[in-house]
Amino acid sequence: MTHQQILDKLAAGAIVSCIDDELARLVGWTMNREFETAEQQLADFLPKLLSRWNCVLKAGKEEVGAYYKEKVILVLAVLLHKYGFKDKSITEQALKAIDKLNKGVVLSDHFFRKTEEIKAVLNSVPVPLKKRPGHRDSITFYRPKDVISFQLDGQFYAAYIHDLVGQNDCPIIEFYDQVFTQVPELKDLKNGKARGSVYNDGTARISLDAIYLMKYLPDLANQIHLIASGVEEKPSNDHLEESVGLFAMNDIFRIQNSIRWMFSPR
């Protein structure tokens, strides 16, 4: 069986498209760097991917629907294999997910009949890519004046969407100067200040980021949550110096380190 034949049988088109886009971007970056082995490449990008999709895989039952975790881990395993990689833990979880999906009669009879072939693909040695994968143009379903919550490392950061880049390419966001232990409500952000970036000279400046691959609403990885739409009150940045440039070019993975750095103790 081919990877695409397996993915077609999962009835998880949006999940496949989302993870495929994200893996293509991550694998492309990794192939630009000098790593000697596939294991080194995997160690470079997999933590970034899991920092996002663990928001599903480690979520409580009340956060994600029945069998959603099983579909996500199986898509992750198949697409990693497609791109020439294999992670022992993810593969083992995917094999268990196949059995659970079959036991729950979640997918088609054809999926059930092809179970051993699917497992054989996942257990086989993946073939490394010979060239960088291509990727589709970015698009977003978020809109200006949306307020969102961004989950990272077990904490939640709120952000305001000021504008979009291009023709709905990606949102331009500014973070509130608050950290939460759960998705905040809009009332928690009333009269909130913006979080700035501190430069080497100690100056705190306005910080806006354009986030590519911030696409689906609701977010399929359960990382981003829409708090409210049409919010006129922006986070106040009067206490910050002017920004350097209009905004920084970022994406759903590079913003991870930006958040960690921006919210590190000052």
Question: Can you characterise this structure?
Answer:
The chain has 266 residues and is α+β, with helices and mostly antiparallel strands. It folds into two domains: 3-123, no CATH class; 146-263, no CATH class. Helices cover 37% and strands 17% of the residues. It has eight helices and eight strands, in the order αααααααββββββββα. Strands 7-1-2-3-6-8 form a six-stranded mixed beta sheet, with helices on one face. It is globular, with a radius of gyration of 20 Å. The N and C termini lie far apart (53 Å).
User: What's the N-to-C terminus distance?
Assistant: 53 Å
- Rg, rounded, reads 20 Å
- Number of separate strands: 8
Shape: globular
Low-confidence parts: none
Q: In which range does the helix fraction lie?
A: 25-40%
Following the backbone from N to C, one meets helices and strands in this order, namely HHHHHHHEEEEEEEEH
Tally of separate helices:
8
**How much is the average pLDDT?**
95
Range of strand content: 15-25%
Strands of the largest sheet, in order across it? Answer: 7-1-2-3-6-8
Integer tally of domains: 2
Task: Summarize the biggest pleated sheet.
Answer: 6 strands, mixed
Secondary-structure class = alpha+beta
